Amino acid sequence: MPLRLHNTLTGTLERFEPLQSGAVRMYNCGPTVYDFVHIGNLRSYVFVDTLRRTFEYEGFQVKQVMNITDIGHLQSDADEGEDKMVLALRRQGYEETLENLYAVGTTYADAFKQDLLKLNVEMAETLPRASEHIPEQIALIEALEKQGYAYRISNGVYFDTAKLPTYGKRMRHALSGDEAGARVETNLEKHNQRDFALWKLGGTIGWESPWGKGFPGWHTECAAMSMKYLGESFDIHTGGEDLKFPHHENEIAQAEALTRKTFARYFLHNAFVTIANERMAKSKQNFFTLRDIETKGISPLALRYLFLTSHYRSPLHFTWEALAGAQTALNRLEHTIASSTTDTGKISTIYRTDFLNALEDDLNTPQALAVAWNMIKDDSLSPPDKRATLLDMDRVLGLDLEHAKSNTILLSDLPERVRNLVEERETARANKDWAKADALREKIIGMEFEIEDTDAGPRLGKR
Ligand code: AMP
Ligand code: ZN
């Protein structure tokens, strides 16, 4: 079956056809590096990684670019409010200079890359930073101005949406009513309230430009950098669903006004991680980071597993119980790998086909996981064949099963004497009888087992 993906541009499932046979060029809207990312943001990048791995599994060569926003992303999508990075400097008591902005951006960009590595995400080939591409952005704005798509007002240069008949129509399948035309803020100097900033004048941190000292608009960064690294037309563009409008509509407007070519052919958007029925967001103070998860003794890869249990276009309702369940499931998969040490097994073609069919159906990862579990439960397959088939599937799942701690032992597989001690210790812990719990731990260690307490329960291994 061919790979089918849901394209926001048409609102339908479309057969994926690359521009260039055997190769995929993809751009992902990356993080704004003003703070640590939360697990909602991370869903976006694990989704992208699953997409990349699926392409690679199918034999495509992938060229991937993910931007790092370190200037120009204002508090409000409507070009108003303060720059999020400048606010971060203020929050940390730093002087508002370009050097400090760059340093703070580097700190959080590095932390972000660490998170991706812990989630076993394959790194994009290029991770360009907005502040390092100011000349490219100025050039793009100058070209738009030359072709009559930009005008100046007292606080900056704006894109003249009325000049582009397709404006507001590209993301129409994703928008309700006339959302595309309705912008709440008013700047009476703008020709049209939906016009957006290409270059903003003023601010404490800025660069010289033909229009005066200032900084580029957030939408300009992605248009300029995607075309620089991937060409005027490329295959795939991704982001969380909040980026459909205005961010992606505005990126398309700039690129297509300039080139008169299709910009990205497929736009893919992931739904949110929610908590208590609300979107997880910095501004709502209802977020967790990967550090919070690790502090509780849960593996980042359990979070990756949890992401895979829901389809990327469905909201994912985060709970600690669900994460603990994901950890248990991950332990079981690791155990399947560890229970056979021979590498001579054969990949089951039947299960491989089912697995691929699930992925080709708009990346149906819950179904792909179900295929993996059916395969594991199938008694007609030998342990080495199960191991080989699961390791093959893990090329897409990305759970790093090959390097799984092969000494993880399921509770049910422990010798009865040890299992009794573990259960006794859990009771002692529940009663807060720490002295007894410690004594039991020593006993367990004395029997050559190691025990680690996690939020998903005790994890046992052979010493
Ligand atoms: P930002 O750093 O705010 O630019 O966001 C980075 C990426 O995370 C964007 O693609 C957002 O759409 C996405 N994102 C933000 N919040 C969530 C959430 N709660 N769930 C899933 N994705 C999100
Ligand atoms: Zn972007």
From TrEMBL:
GO function terms (MF aspect): ATP binding; cysteine-tRNA ligase activity; zinc ion binding
Subunit architecture: Monomer.
Matches recorded under Pfam families: CysS_C, tRNA-synt_1e
Protein's UniProt name: Cysteine--tRNA ligase
Gene Ontology annotations for the cellular component aspect, listed alphabetically: cytosol
Family of the protein in this entry: Belongs to the class-I aminoacyl-tRNA synthetase family.
SUPFAM superfamilies, per database record: Anticodon-binding domain of a subclass of class I aminoacyl-tRNA synthetases, Nucleotidylyl transferase
EC number, UniProt record: 6.1.1.16
Entry cofactors: Zn(2+)
Gene: cysS
Reactions it catalyzes: tRNA(Cys) + L-cysteine + ATP = L-cysteinyl-tRNA(Cys) + AMP + diphosphate
Motif interval(s): 'HIGH' region: 31-41
Residues the record lists as binding ATP: K282
Class of the enzyme per the UniProt entry, highest EC level: ligase
The keyword Ribosomal protein belongs to this UniProt entry's keyword annotation: no
HAMAP family, alphabetized: Cys_tRNA_synth
Keywords linked to the UniProt accession: Aminoacyl-tRNA synthetase, ATP-binding, Cytoplasm, Ligase, Metal-binding, Nucleotide-binding, Protein biosynthesis, Zinc
UniProt remark on cofactor binding: Binds 1 zinc ion per subunit.
Placement of sequence motif 'KMSKS' region: 279-283
Annotated localization: Cytoplasm
